[in-house]
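#lab-general

N.A. 3:47 PM
ok so I finally got the sequence cleaned up, no stray characters, all 173 residues accounted for. can someone with queue access submit it? mine expired

B.Y. 3:52 PM
send it over

N.A. 3:53 PM
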Amino acid sequence: MPVLQTPQHIVVMGVSGSGKTTVAKLLARRLAWPYAEGDDFHPESNVQKMAAGKPLEDEDRWPWLRAVADWMSAQADDGRSTVVTCSALRRAYRDSLREARGQVRFAHLSGEFDVIGERVAYRGGHFMPASLLTSQFETLEGLGDDEEGTVVDVNRAPEDIADAVIAGLDLST
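B.Y. 4:20 PM
back already:
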């Protein structure tokens, strides 16, 4: 009789511009797991607020975080592990995501403000303006020692970052 494995969810987290989408897509492809872009779960009011250069408040974030966790739970209910992007800047936000069914682990893409700021300044087509990066760094709480996850420096090629996440979370491909 086969042993049932608990679905896993890898939340690729970090500030805007840290490479979450690029790395998460690489991970999803390598692991053959469904992928979701956390930004797609924001209500339009959040997108408009950020596009206007206003940082989100906690009351803006809770429904968004619940929507991300609900997606992970729905995937777990169907026996699927997932990869999802979500800034998950505070421990309380990660606690909310951990309410999803399945095992939720984090890949924190970490980098210096100047490195990430340069990336944000030159990317196009994203609703998040570079002016909000400071507030994201101020909000960021790193992973606690008791949180399942890995921290990876973003100052390298995306493929190398994905390799480091896979090694850090002991995932097989």
